[in-house]
């Protein structure tokens, strides 16, 4: 990975009804500037000392070695926290191999996201995404009043939670919160099974504010909030998960004895 590549405005996003991601072809890599990459790093409170060039080389190599996926807008925002962890590690061996280790972890993660979340594909039908469907179902299961309010105003998970899912919350929370959330669901064997529970917990946590708003106020609250109590979010996500799993067990018991 010794060759130099320009980088930056690598978020060419074109959201349509059948395909939420627009591929940036590797042949156009030289035309990219650095504005968007800097914006992401600034949002995550990462310093200018971060090696932007190495981040771009990882993205370039991934696109070259995974032509069936290519490069999509969200990838840089997922990669930057991974690279940040390795490049700031106190262990010099980890720090020295930050680029290689980041590429390995990033490649595995993106391929899992493509397979399990049905994202990063050339043709995806957002309305059929299982994660989004489960977010809607969980809110209805845990908070019927909030669910009815959303349905009355035609507020769907496709509108407010696709960004959380596709970016794994990197565009929503500060980086310490992102790492805490990642620690929870990456530690699980079925790691993405827990994702809709986190997504459903966010509106439920601020339900009292959302119930007072119209569709415009709701979207502003869900898209612009940054600060949230991570401990409370995780605890609520686990609580909803446990309640939901218990309800499924009870339904199976009733079905068995009928």
From TrEMBL:
Pfam entry (one): RabGAP-TBC
Domain annotation Rab-GAP TBC: ranges: 1-189
SUPFAM superfamilies: Ypt/Rab-GAP domain of gyp1p (SSF47923)
Single Gene Ontology MF annotation: GTPase activator activity
UniProt-listed Gene3D superfamilies: putative rabgap domain of human tbc1 domain family member 14 like domains, Ypt/Rab-GAP domain of gyp1p, domain 3
InterPro entries on file: Rab-GAP-TBC_dom, Rab-GAP_TBC_sf
A single GO BP: intracellular protein transport
Protein name, entry field: Tbc1 domain family member 13
Organism, scientific name: Anaeramoeba ignava (Anaerobic marine amoeba)
